[in-house]
Amino acid sequence: MLNAVEIFPWNKNFESGIEIIDTQHKQLVNLLNVLVSHLAFQSEAPEITKVFDELKAYTAYHFTTEEKIWHEHFRNDSWEEWHKKGHEDFIAKVLEIKGSELHKNPDVVIEEIVSFLTHWLAMHIIESDKRMAKVVLALPSGMSLEECKAIANHEMEGATRVLIETVMGMYDTLAHRTIQMTREISRRIKAEQDLQASQIELIRLRDEAVAANVAKSTFLANMSHELRTPLNGIMGMINFAQQRLTDATGSEQLEKAKHAADHLLAVINDILDISKIEANKLTLEATNFKLASVMESINSMVGYKARAKSLGFVIDVPAELLNQPLLGDPLRLGQILMNLTGNAVKFTGQGEVKVAIRELENTPSHIAFRVEVKDSGIGVPQEAQSLLFSSFQQADVSTTRKYGGTGLGLAICKQLVQLMGGEIGMLSVPDLGSTFWFEVQLPKGVDDFATEEQRFFESAEEILIAEFSGSQILVAEDDEINQEVARCLLEDVGFVIDMANDGQQAIEFAKQKDYALILMDMQMPNVSGVDASIAIRNGQSRNHSTPILAMTANAFAEDRSICLEAGMNDHIAKPVVPEHLYVTILKWLRAKL
């Protein structure tokens, strides 16, 4: 096929170790490459009927082959039923997409197939098939099935990391292809700018580059949604279990699981931030805050990690600077500090980490200050220092590196500091430690705002078991685990919940009953949350003026804009932070009074 390319190349992350299974999986990866190549380069579209024929042949031959292998070794075991259910879900999804193809543009159908297959490759082949193959390959050693399953589970604890690495590999390939085509455009313009034929070629290449970039952004947004949606369920269930569990050992295990989920969320957020930076869509808020609240969070979230390693953790900020009202983005400022201090603790084995902030300039309108994060850790080699603030760069790039990380944090810090009009840098001596610093200038904020705002934030939950207990809320959410998370969060503060499984059900509920507030997911089957909100706002319900809040894993700025344009009032990103949810709900319930 013209312009075909292995955008998702087969690699060891997909290999199960059983040759016949891997050979059949490769056929699915090849089909995915053909479809994405078409979307990226606008080449001749494959015939949809043939695509479905290939998927049908894959299910008929591969599923039979694979299930026979698993049945020989997992006969009547729960893993066999779990895996077979995955195959049934695959067939059901393909039939669902095929059932709607006559009403959709062929490219839309192909996009749906691509989105589904990427999810299948990552979650089923990497997570499920590899796990079962490890058991099959271990059984000849003489161990029992349960012993082999336990070993497979232990070895697959890093599956989430493999998933992220696979996603980033796909992302890197798309980005690299975009750069290649952009360079080709520049060379053609310079060499053939006076020829009409070359102009036509350049336009074609330009369109290919745009299509590749759109495919990259669409893929990244889809993967973000696919990762954040289950993560919302994981983090929600952990929170509920922590509230109800009294066993000390279980509580400690849940806390470890929470830290792992927090780390995964941080990785996902880093990927999203990098994509926003590349698209020039990363923006800063302008709200009143004080450095005191930012530093309190740093001490709480990073200080305990330092103390767990028996490190000193010192925050040195003059009281007058801590309590000076400022106007800026406290979350992004905290993100910079969290990254720098987190790195300092990670790379320091003994001694201390010190955060010092000093005033550089103080005028009636603004304050400039310098932040230094100093550690007594391993330092950074001279040859690596110039690359540290670039995307995907790390001081240790070996595959056996001790400290891990995505290589995105410092690049994001640099972009955020520059958006604030400042600069960032570092000084380091190997084995003697490092000092990372940045300087910014922020306008002065309004005094006495913090007390009332903080009191409102801290007491939102109580204001809701006091002023709005018994109020009826409609929740539209198609994921069962996230339904349970939402129900628990809302019923805990006294709300009465009606649960809609998709946008169409939400519209029907809204026609029949008055609600105090509606929480709406964006991506749902049958009718999306966006279309459902438009229908409700257009008078097809009794709730045309009821506050509608998006509660969704779609976390890009344009997603928020789409929600507002559809008539929604606000946007809550998943994974949901309970305090943020309660504050936002309280804000709009009071606004309705």
Largest sheet: 5 strands, mixed
Low-confidence stretches: 397-401
CATH superfamily of the largest domain: Histidine kinase-like ATPase, C-terminal domain
- Termini separation (Å)? 61 Å
Radius of gyration: 26 Å
The residue-averaged pLDDT reads 83
Number of domains: 3
Briefly note the structural class of the backbone: alpha/beta
Strand order of the largest sheet: 2-4-5-7-6
Structure description:
This protein is of the alpha/beta class. It folds into 3 domains: 16-142, Hemerythrin-like (Four Helix Bundle (Hemerythrin (Met), subunit A)), CATH 1.20.120; 287-447, Heat Shock Protein 90 (2-Layer Sandwich); 459-592, 3-Layer(aba) Sandwich (Rossmann fold). Helices cover 59% and strands 12% of the residues. The strands form 3 sheets. The protein has a 5-stranded mixed β-sheet with strand order 2-4-5-7-6. Strands 9-8-10-11-12 form a 5-stranded parallel β-sheet, with helices on both faces. Strand 11, helix 20 (557-565) and strand 12 form a beta-alpha-beta unit. Helix 1 (19-41) runs antiparallel to helix 2, helix 1 packs antiparallel against helix 4 (106-138) and helix 12 (330-346) runs antiparallel to helix 14. The chain is globular, with a radius of gyration of 26 Å. The chain starts with 18 loop residues before the first helix and ends with a helix.
